[in-house]
Amino acid sequence: MQDLVISPGLAKNFRRNFVEQIIEVGLLLSAVVAVFITSAIVYILVVEAIPFFQHVSLYDFLTDTVWTPNYSIKHYGIMALVSGTLTTTIIALIVAVPLGTITAIYLSEFASHKTRETIKPILELLVGVPTVVFGYFALMLVTPLIQKIYPDLTTFNMLGPGIVMGIMIVPYIASVSEDAMRAVPMAMREGAYAMGATRFQTAIRVIAPAATSGIVASYILAVSRAVGETMIVAIAAGQQPNFTFNPVESAATITAYIVSVALGDLEHGTVGYQSIFAAGLTLLIMTLFLNILGHWTRKKFSERY
Amino acid sequence: MVASKKKRFNDTIKAESKDLDFYYADGTQALKKVNLAVYENKITALIGPSGCGKSTFLRSFNRMHDLYPGNRYDGQIILYPDNTNILAKKVDPIEVRMRISMVFQKPNPFPKSIYENVAYGLRVRGERNKHTLDDKVEEALKGASLWEEVKDRLYDLAFNLSGGQQQRLCIARALATEPEIMLFDEPTSALDPIATVNIEELMSELKEKLSILIVTHNMQQAARISDYTAYMYLGELVEHDLTDQIFTNPSKKETEDYITGKFG
């Protein structure tokens, strides 16, 4: 048998391999940054929330319905804030889900190429409007308008900001859902049209079901966005923690509370100060839960076509 | 050149194109003065090399081209016994598609259950009665020789079927609304040989009830199943005759070259 050698031309190129490895490490590091920041946030929230829970029992935190960290008799019932967050979010969804879905169906299935290319960028511009502006829009325009129909409405309420938040998240739903529907293969549309279906029947009975996973993902994205929204509710919903699901009352959301504390209402190191970490943790768990739910629904409804 | 030599056969004409021109939105002319008849209870096969316009021709019959802006037809496709030019502006393409259904190259079931796939066309027409739906779905699935395989899992997702079963499901779906003409656009090109035989046998049964126009790349398939064959090249109809005639004694040199494999 012939002795084998490594011919110089086929030998491993150390320089090239070295450069490759440097690049690989660089890429890994950038990927790790996001993971690290997330872990750091969770770590700080948990560590700072521990002293809070040494003063306030978890049971009281979850069951008490009064949140008064700066009164003489202090209550730390997170539900007073959760109710505000949930109410404004639900109002926002009642506005955004139908409006966003219908917009997506129109853009994907009905609009001509030119119309779509005109409307979509304008719609996406809404995403770029600073939320402070939306907050004043709610306070100065939407609430007074509702007051014309319903005069008993207080200046600070959850209905106005809820509606405005809904308008704010319409582009998220419309844009992501439209992408999902347009990704449905043309063969599916042709199949439906060939059966004598109208555009509307095709859109509702074939395209929307085929794009369910993407549409659901857009809803989850929108919910997460609404739950985390701060400025609109801080400006227009009032900042009084109030355990209520009545949209015409004023209330504070978790985010609005955190922002007011962060602005310096409470002294460093006090239980009240620590409470923002507990509130932040609650918010994080809520959004985490929503993301898991979104991931799960996307998997469950994902269609093969 | 074809118009003058147009043949008339003894069968009844179900639909025919008259001087049909077709232009895509970018201006390319895909069909040039095509005159071709589809006969009742017969299978007409369209053969020819890729890009010859056979699919374009087929898709004109149920106004599929209307889905894309800028496409333009000239000439007529007359549907009998209505004696109506189905390409006319006043004709509703949806009504046309209700009577002339289509099966595509790649099986394209909807993301729904087997039952709902077949019921789709009926629901689109406003049928709500559960018993009528059940009966028609069963009848259509039987018509597509799929009933025995799926009767115990009608509510399973259609995607769980094999490719051949999916294609038969698409045929059942098209069949449920009792069309007069069924268009097949290379229905077996994505299927294995056994599934292909099943579909071919099915087509031979179906022609008892309706007229069939099929585009195929497979010349043996055209020879096996069709009664008439038309050979197209570069958007023109070169020859249209009884299948036996075309395959044994074509009158045009081009047809012969294509069939014998010298070209194509």
Explain what you see.
- The complex is a heterodimer of chains A (305) and B (264).
- Chain A is mostly helical and 305 residues long.
- Chain A is built from twelve helices and no strands.
- Chain A has two domains: 8-55; 79-304, MetI-like fold (Orthogonal Bundle).
- Chain A has helices at 14-55, 58-63, 79-110, 113-128, 131-149, 159-182, 186-194, 199-210, 212-228, 231-236, 254-265, 271-301.
- Chain B has one domain: Rossmann fold, CATH 3.40.50.
- Chain B has a six-stranded mixed sheet with strand order 6-7-8-3-9-10, sandwiched between helices.
- In chain B, strand 1 and strand 2 (29-39) form a beta hairpin.
- In chain B, helix 3 runs parallel beside helix 6 (163-175) and helix 4 (130-143) crosses helix 6 (163-175).
**In whole angstroms, how far apart are the ends of chain B?**
22 Å
Backbone shape of chain A:
flat
Structural class of chain B: alpha/beta
How many domain regions of chain B? 1
Number of strands of chain A: 0
Largest sheet of chain B: 6 strands, mixed
The CATH architecture classification of chain B is 3-Layer(aba) Sandwich
Order of helices and strands of chain A: HHHHHHHHHHHH
How is this structure best summarized?
Chain A has 305 residues and is mainly α.
Offer a few descriptive terms.
heterodimer, A: 305 residues, mainly alpha, MetI-like fold, B: 264 residues, Rossmann fold
SSE layout and pairing:
The complex is a heterodimer of chains A (305) and B (264).
Chain A lengths: L13 H42 L2 H6 L15 H32 L2 H16 L2 H19 L9 H24 L3 H9 L4 H12 L1 H17 L2 H6 L17 H12 L5 H31 L4
Chain B lengths: L12 E11 L5 E11 L3 E5 L6 H7 L11 E8 L4 E2 L7 H7 E4 L10 H11 L5 H14 L3 H4 L12 H13 L5 E5 L7 H14 L4 E5 L3 H7 L2 E6 L2 E7 H6 L4 H7 L5
Parallel strand pairs in B: 3-8, 3-9, 6-7, 7-8
Antiparallel strand pairs in B: 1-2, 1-4, 4-5, 9-10
Helix pairs in contact in B: 3-4, 3-6, 4-6, 6-7
